[in-house]
Amino acid sequence: MSVLKSSAEKTCCYHCGENCNEEQITLAEKNFCCVGCKTVYEIINKNELCEYYDLTNNPGINQKRKIRAGKFDFLDDEKIINKLIHFKDETHQHITFYLPQMHCSSCIWILEHLHKINIGIIKSQVNFLKKEVTLIFDFNITSLKKVAETLTLIGYEPHISLKDVNSKNIKKYDTTKIIKIGVAGFCFGNIMMFSFPEYFSLEKLENPELKNWFNYLNLLLSLPVFFYSASEFFISGIKGLKQKFLNIDAPIALAVLITFSRSVYEIVSNTGSGYLDSMSGIVFFMLIGRYFQGLTYQSISFDRDYTSYFPLGVSILNTEGKENQISVADLKVGDRIKIHNDEIIPADSILFMGKATIDYSFVTGESIAVEKSIGEIIYAGGKQTSGAIELEVIKEVSQSYLTQLWDNKAFKEKKEIANNSFIHKISKYFTYILFLIAAISSIYWSLNDSSKIWSAITSVLIVACPCALLLSATFTNGNMIRILNKHKLYVKNANVIEQLANVDTIVFDKTGTITEQGKSEIIFQGYELTEEQSQLIRSIANQSNHPLSKSISSYLPFSKSLTIKNYKDLKGFGASGIINNKLIKIGSSEFVLNQKTESVNLGSRVYVRIDDEFLGCFIVKNSYRAGLEKIISDLEPNFELKILSGDNSTEKNYLRTVFGPNTEMLFNQKPEDKLNFIKHLQQKNKKVLMIGDGLNDAGALIQSDVGIAISDDTNNFSPACDAILSGKQFNLLDKLINYCKKEKSIIYASFILSVIYNFVGLFYAVQGDLQPVIAAILMPISSISIVLLTTGMSNFFERKLKHDKNHI
Amino acid sequence: MSVIFVLISASLLIAIGFLIAFIWSVKSGQYEDDYTPSVRILFDDEITNNNKEKTKKTND
Prior knowledge:
The structure holds two protein chains of two kinds.
Chain A: H1 2-10, E1 25-27, E2 30-32, H2 35-46, H3 51-55, H4 78-84, E3 87-88, E4 92-98, H5 105-111, E5 121-127, E6 132-138, H6 144-153, H7 163-166, H8 176-201, H9 208-229, H10 231-242, H11 249-268, H12 276-294, E7 313-317, E8 323-327, E9 336-339, E10 349-353, E11 356-359, E12 370-372, E13 377-378, E14 383-384, E15 389-393, H13 409-412, H14 422-448, H15 453-463, H16 467-486, E16 489-491, H17 494-502, E17 505-508, H18 510-514, E18 515-526, H19 531-543, H20 547-555, E19 565-570, E20 574-579, E21 582-587, H21 589-593, E22 604-610, E23 613-624, H22 628-635, E24 640-644, H23 652-659, E25 664-666, H24 671-683, E26 688-692, H25 698-703, E27 706-711, E28 723-726, H26 733-765, H27 772-807
Helix pairs in contact in A: 8-9, 8-12, 9-11, 9-12, 10-11, 11-15, 12-16, 12-27, 14-15, 15-26, 16-26, 16-27, 17-26, 19-20, 26-27
Chain B: H1 2-27, H2 36-40, H3 49-59
């Protein structure tokens, strides 16, 4: 047995690279793991696209999961087509599909050669980072449905969700920011250049005409900087003042305004050449900082709600029992729908026909699928796992038990991002001190030389604008976001870093968060099973649709299923059957041993008996993430930990040993309960970090101060949150939090540096004698040294993050 | 001396030309996807059947 297996493991599928374990499928000396992969290879080969396999080894997508024919029938509906496409003329339609399977250069290659497979496709262009393909096709030759089927045929099943039609918010790439930077940079460079004569000869320019010419050119060039590039500082500053809040943009806008008006005054009155170079310079640097801070990972979306999880089309049955495809959004109460295997139930409904085994793990956190009998209510969001069923809708999609969560107030109000950052607090004090200095110097000059009052006040405000603070904050945050991305913690915006550093309570979800998604650990306790025995058990388990028997049959080594006589499946108890005159029973202890055993806390048990011989039992339990115990013991001294699970409390005892006696643990929590629990903690002035993964955590993730969604595959659906953490990096959680705590000290350090520069500038400013050249030298030096300091420090602290990683 | 006025105006005009080119390139979406084109350029030209035979012959 073991020899056979190891030789089989060596051959991997030519298409997808997975091990060909079960049967050998070969074609043209190439091995395939399943018929699906072979079919895709044949299509690709037939269309002379085999370069696909030359670019990357085994680039394909595993085809074991079969996609039902007719799945895209809803794309024949004119109404749906018009909602999905973004351009249409007499012959062509343009459509963008999201293809989560995209992963390598071969994918780009084949997707851009789609016209060879489907001649109706005229052009296809891939955006790899967004995992999108934009297609232009001739709808007289082909149709949207056929295009989607072409993609599915070669393994790239487009992900079309309810969200694609519900909201037409195709995120347009924001170009204004970049253009603003470009304009500011252009003007800054040219103004700097035209100021050179002024810098070097210091007012002794030979030709006054030339000097005037330069001054007016500079003034002209500064207009787009002042009115266009710097506009966002004015807008945001005024907005803040209207809400009676002094944010960091207000003093910056004031400084820009004063610099500009004094420069205009000097130039027009012919008394000097102003500080236009410094002004455009700081605007340029600050815009770059903002842009750098705003760079987040493109392909990740942080604002998903249930609509991007729910399917777009559903099969509806008319009175004659014929299947029709309609949009989920159009479902009405009383409609009869058909849900196929592996599809999501879109609305609360009653089971009418068929065998329902619903996997709610993503919705409620229950780790084991639930069997439902006819007449029972099935809530929306679950995934059907045992064949097709028919349902009658009892509530519309938006009124369903699960989707109602999104009506909660927490989803309506956006988290106040800008106003509570400590940067604004510092900038407030900074501004007050600045006004104080300006006032003192004006009082001093009014007593000594009243002609210098205005010059002194404006110089102070010009030199000491809090732009250095903004620069330190934006560059620190931008670089930290980049570093966190590298360590697979994708944060939504810079504010999350600061929030994460303030956290004092961590709430964990159980299923999918501290356990690994879709994985369960199976242990067999009892006598060692012979090959024959395991074949017998596997044959029975294969027959049963119960999720536990499915796990058992995948756990036992592969063997051929034997014919079973007298097969019985007792719901809630187990299954039995006769093979080769041997009676095999698997199931609960009541069913197998005719006696109740004391309920044991760890996992679900399946007992096994062949004839009169009791062989033992399988223990199926959740598989916890690697390193869970260590990370919890690291976090425990510093944070208040809590567990909030939608699942039952079977694993409570185990969790207690891991989390220690002080951890509050709540089970059987509904999505609403989770949200309210977080709210309750916040009322006690706790800063809560919620870590979850499923739709049932969506409310808690929104309500919490920081919501992190754990995702084993960043392409998977994850609910709206502040940050997404890769499951593999879960054991680095405390280090990542500690890293975020460094943010403040880095910003303080660079701010102190900029204050030193400010003092030098102020020294001249209070004397009312600020030479443009001094301002022009101080400004870039302080900006550049701040950028170097912040990036240097954040990279330095990153080393610690890496260092620790090696030790785990 | 007056030549410097002409030269400076000319240099500024050329620079403005570059600024316009930059704005155009941003607006036309050239910076939207900064990864895929770098992969795309490495793909070989498509080999048509005729070409294939030719290359085979030359290889022989």
